[in-house]
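Bug: C-alpha cell stream looks shifted between consecutive jobs. Job 1:
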Amino acid sequence: MIILLYYRALHKHKWLTLFTVKTVDATIMSHRIRFYLFSHPRCQEAVTQKRHAFVKRALRSTAYPSE
C-alpha cells in the first residue's frame, strides 16, 4: 500500500525523470518492506536478474581501466 501511494504521487508529477523513479525504487527496496516483497518467487527472480545485470555493468566498466 505504501508503494502504491508512492507511485500515485510520482505519476502526478510529469517532471520526474525515469532516473528519479529508479532512485525511489531503490529507496523503497532498501527499506524493510523488501522482506515482504522478496517472499514472492517471481519478485525474487526479477530482483536477482537486475542485480546480475548491475554487477555485469560494473565489472565491464572496471575490467579495462584506461592506461
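Job 2, same session, no restart:
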Amino acid sequence: MKRKGARIQFDNVSDKRQAIEILTQEGMCGLANQFDNPGTELVFDEPETAASALSIIHAWLKPSAD
C-alpha cells in the first residue's frame, strides 16, 4: 500500500476492504470521497487526510509486542 497525494493505492481489493473496516472503526469513514469506488484506491479530499488514514491503517496492522 502506498499514498499518492490524496489517494491510497492498495495491492488488492481485499487489502482495501480491510482498510475500510479499520477506518470505519476509527470514525474516518465520512472523510473519504469514494470508499465504494471500484478498484484498489481510496480517494480523500486532502493529501493530509490520506496521510492520517495511512498512519491509522499502519498502526492497526502493526504486530503487537507480546
